[in-house]
C-alpha cells in the first residue's frame, strides 16, 4: 500500500529519519518511539507536509506526481495541534471537509462522536489541549481516505474519548482504512488489532514483535 | 520618533518647535504615541497568554499598591523610548517658548501608562478571556463559516494590527501623493509605476507573515488535496484583497490623463510583485536581513526598468511568470526553518 524507498529527511543538515526500504501493507501499524525520535517528522513527510529526499507512493500514486489524488487518500491528525486562535472548530472542520470531499452526515457524526458540539463555535484560542486534540482527530477522519495517520492520538483526551477513538479506528478499519498510529509509550494500542509494530530510534525504523497481552 | 535615526538633531528640534506650535500636529503625535502604547499593551498581553509565563498570574497575591507600582514600572520601561524622545524635544519646546504644549505633553505621557496598569490588572484577574465580545463573535461564528481567504487577513488583524495599519497608511499616502503630484508637472505614467513598485516591495513584510502563518499555524494546508491551480487562485484572490485599499485610493484620487487600461496594468504590477516575492519565500527561507536586501535590490532593478520605459505589461509578465514558476516548483518543497543553519541550500537545490 505505502511504499517508501531511500527516504531521508534532514533539518539543516541534521538527519532526523532515514528509511532505505519500507512497505506498509493494509492494516493498523503502530510506531513507537521516545520523544524526539522522529515519529512526527516521518508522519508529516508521509502526509505530504514536508519536503524530503527519496520516493513515497501510496497505492501506486507518487507523492510528488499525484499531488491531489495522494493527499485525498491520506489524512493526518497532529500530535500537538496549534490552530489560528480566531478560527473555530467549525471553521476548520468545514474547510477540511470541503477539501477532503466529506459528506455532511460524516461531519455531523464526527462532531457528535468526539463531543465537539459544546465548543464548535468557540475560537480555538480558548480551547484546552484536549479540545484541540478532539478537533484534530475530527479533521483526520474526514473524507474517504485510504490511510489515516494519527500522531499520539490518545494524549490529552479524557478516558471516554479514548474509547471513542478506539471505536472510530475499528469502524474505519472495518471499512478498509489503514492506520499509522504513534505513541511514545508502550501501552497505548493493545486494544486494537495491530498488524505491525515499529520502533523509531536512532534515525531509523525497525520492526518489533507485537505485544502478546492484547485484549 | 519614526525618523529618529534619519533626521539630524537640528531637524528634530525644528520639528518639535513646529509640533508644539500646532495643536493639530501635537494631536497627531499623541496619536502615534498611542499606537506605540497599544503595541506595548499587546506585547504584555501576549506574554500573559504564554503558558511559560503563567506564573505571572501569581502577582494577584501581592498587595494591590505594590502590584500597581510594579505594573506601572513595567509600563514605564516599555514607555522609555517615548519618554526619552519627549524629554529631548520637550526641553527645546520649553526653551522656544511653548510651556503649555510641553506641560500637556508631559501630562499625556504620564497618564497614558496608567491605562496600561489598568489593562494588566484587568487581565490578571480575568485570565480566561470570556467577554461579551466573545458572545458577539460566537453569534457570528454560528451563522457564518470563515472562508479561507479571510484567515490571513484575520491573522493580521489579530497578530500584527500595527504593522497592517502602518503599512496600509504608508502605501495609501504614497498613492494619494503621486495622484496629487502628477498634475503639477509634466510627469508621465512612470511616476505611478515607480509608486507601484515601491508599494509592492513594502508588502514584503506582510508576505513574510503569510509564509510564517501558513507554515506554523496551518501546516495541514499541504496535506489538503487542492490542485496547484486551485492554490494559485486562492493566493491570487488573497493578494488582490491585500492590494484593495491602495487600488481604491487610486480610483478615488485618479488624476485626469491616466487611462483605465493603465490602472489594470498598475494593479497587475502589484499582484505580480506579490507573486514574485511569495515565490521567493517558497524557494528559500529568508531571514529579515535577507528580506530587506531582497526588497531593496528588487526595487532598484525595477526603478531602472521603469525609467527605461520598459512596458508595464512586460514587467508584469516577467514577475508573474517568475512567481508562478517558483510557486509551481517549490510549493511542496517549501519548509519553515527556525535554525539559521538550515538556511543553507538544500542538496536538491
- Helix/strand-derived category of chain B reads mainly alpha
Overall radius of gyration of chain B: 24 Å
Q: Using CB atoms under 8 Å apart, which protein chain pair has the greatest interface?
A: A-B, 41 and 41 residues
Number of helices of chain A: 6
What does the model show?
Chain A is α/β, with parallel strands linked by helices. Helices cover 30% and strands 27% of the residues of chain A. Chain A has helices spanning 39-46, 67-73, 89-99, 104-113, 129-140, 159-174, and strands at 2-11, 14-24, 28-32, 53-58, 61-62, 74-77, 147-150, 178-183, 196-201, 204-208. In chain A, helix 3 (89-99) runs parallel beside helix 5 (129-140). The longest helix of chain A is centred in the last third of the chain and has 16 residues, at 159-174. With 349 residues, chain B is an all-alpha fold. The chains are: A alpha/beta (215), B mainly alpha (349). Chain A binds chain B through residues 11-13, 44, 47-51, 53, 64, 67-72, 74-76, 78, 82-88, 90-91, 94-96, 99-101, 121-123, 126, 139, and chain B through 128-130, 134, 137-138, 141-142, 145-146, 148, 151, 154-155, 158, 213, 216-220, 222-228, 332-335, 337, 339, 341-344, 346-348.
